[in-house]
Structure formats: structure tokens, C-alpha cells
Amino acid sequence: MELRQLRYFTALAEELNFTRAAERLHISQPPLSAQIAQLETELGVKLFERNSRKVSLTDAGTAFLRDVRVIQARLKEATQRVQDIHSGLAGRIEIGVSGSHFLGPLPQCISDLAKAYPDIDVVLNEMAPNDQIEALREQRIDISISRQVVEDDLLCSEALWPDPLWVALPRGHGLAQTGTPEPLTLAALAEEHFIMLRRDTSRFAQHIYNACIQKGFTPYVVHAVSEVPAQLSLVGAGLGIAIVPGSTRRYQANTLVFCPLEDIGIHTQVHAVMRRHSRKPAVTTVVRQLQISASVS
Fold first, then answer.
1. Distance of CA 116 to the CA centre of its chain
2. Helices of type H across 158-249
3. What is the spatial distance between Cα 190 and Cα 209, in angstroms, rounded to a whole number?
């Protein structure tokens, strides 16, 4: 049984006239008659009653028409879906993200993406930044939302949104400012106790550590943690200060004071890191939509 035969059968079942059905199919009547006869032979049942005056469906033909229409509808859906996947309008995209990004614009961006492209299934995988890059190379995720830029033979990066550095301080700290805070210099933090991200899991943390060295002091790290929320919780408890992305300032705002940090030469944009030759067209769609959403948020 061929799809062509099902198409011919449906046309005749709807027209109940060989001439009109043939015209609708843009074929002559003899091939139509031959295909219907072959279909009835393969099924071993009579689908149509025909005489010199009219054509009508048998009971078996009526039942077969219902099932054929279901098959044709599913086939149409399948065709549309593969075309959407090819065009980047559908598919499954695995995104690696660290916990700090949930405090910034990412949740709203993902919501906007779901509304704009409901057939793109986005799966968020919370992972340490360095683990995301490894997962990208091993093709376990498709995009890494990262504060580090990666450009090599396999991976490339595109900027999504700016996220400048701020200093998180406990309320009552000597450097805490009221009103509109002035930027703090890195040198002003030389004697502070630092709550830092673990440098073995985050290049971003290593860059901050290196910037302190370049300013002439080795930061005194009292606690090294894996995620920014943990940093901020410890700062709120008065255990030290932290240099964090500005997008996290809404976290525990009642126990923390945030001051901008002067430009210390560290990349402060959030990027989408992806494979250069991804086989998933939806990757491009997702990145473009994240950029659009971030630009209006």
C-alpha cells in the first residue's frame, strides 16, 4: 500500500465521482481507476459501490476513510514538525546554566522564548561553569550561559547581556554607602575577607582573583563556594564581602548593601557559548531570542 493510493482513495471518497476526483488529482481517470482497484485487491475488501449512475462508499470504505484521514493528519503534522526543526522553529535544546543566572534576566528571557517559540523544548541543566564547557565539548548540552568567552576551533561565543561587577557588603560595613553609591576601587578591598567562588570550577572567579594580584594584593579568602547565592548568604551573615555580577543584587537585599566596582578589566558580559557547527538550527533561534528579550528587559 502506498501513500499515493491513500491520497487517490480520499479524493474519490470525498468527490464520489471518478471524473471530478481525477481532475482534483491532476491525473486522467484510468490511472485513478487502476489504483483504486489495486488498493481494493490489496485490502481484500470492496471500498466503493459503483455503477453507471453513481459511486458510493461501502461500510468498509467509510470506516477506512476515517482511519486514512487520521493517518494523513498525523503525516501532515510530522511533515510540518520536521520542516520547523530544519528551520530552527522547533526541537529540543539543552542549556547549561549556573545558579547565579536565575537571579538575573534569564528566567524572563526563557519565559519570552517559550511564548515566541512554543515548539522549542528548552531543558535547563544547572552546572558549574567549567563543567558546562566540558559538557558542550562532549555534546551533552547545546548552549552554555556563561560569563566567560570561549573561542577555539570547536566553540564560539555570542554576547547576550551586560552584567557589570558589584561589591556585596554586609549592612553596617564601613564601605557601605547610602543613596546612590560611588564605585569602589579594587585596592580599597585589599584588607577585606573575601567570599569567593571556587576557582577550580569557574574561570570568572579565577579572573577576579588574578585582578586582585595585579592590584598588588592577594585576596584573603575565608570561604570558597560553588554558587553566587551561597556567596551572598555568607556575606549577609557578616562573614566577609564578595565581588558578584550586578544582576544578583535582588538577592537578600534586606541584609546586603551593593556598591559598583570600578572597571578592573574583566569581561562582564554574559555570553552564549555553543559549538561552531551545531547540527541543531534551533540553537541560533534560542540565542537570538535571548538577545532580543535581554535588550528590552
1. 12
2. 203-214, 228-236
3. 12
Per-residue tens of pLDDT for the chain, all 297 residues: 788 999 999 999 999 999 999 999 999 999 999 999 999 999 999 999 988 788 999 999 999 999 999 999 999 888 888 887 777 788 999 999 998 899 889 999 999 999 999 999 999 999 988 899 999 999 999 999 998 889 999 999 999 999 999 999 998 898 987 777 889 999 999 999 999 999 988 888 999 999 999 999 999 999 999 889 999 999 999 999 999 999 988 887 788 999 999 988 887 899 999 999 888 999 999 999 999 999 876
Reference 94, options 132, 125, 115; nearest CA is 125
Distance CA(192)–CA(189), nearest Å, equals 5
Fold of 3-86: Arc Repressor Mutant, subunit A (1.10.10)
Category of 5 on φ-ψ map: left (φ > 0), alpha (ψ -120 to 50) or beta: alpha
- How many angstroms separate the CA atoms of 86 and 110, rounded? 21
CATH hierarchy code of domain 165-260 = 3.40.190.10
Give CATH 3.40.190.10 domain extents, the chain: 91-162+269-296, 165-260
Start-to-end CA distance of the chain, whole Å, equals 55
Cell of 42: 490489496
Torsion angle defined by CA atoms of residues 76, 81, 83 and 84, in that order, rounded to the nearest 10 degrees:
140
Half-sphere exposure of 24 (CA within 13 A, CB side): 16
pTM of the model: 0.72
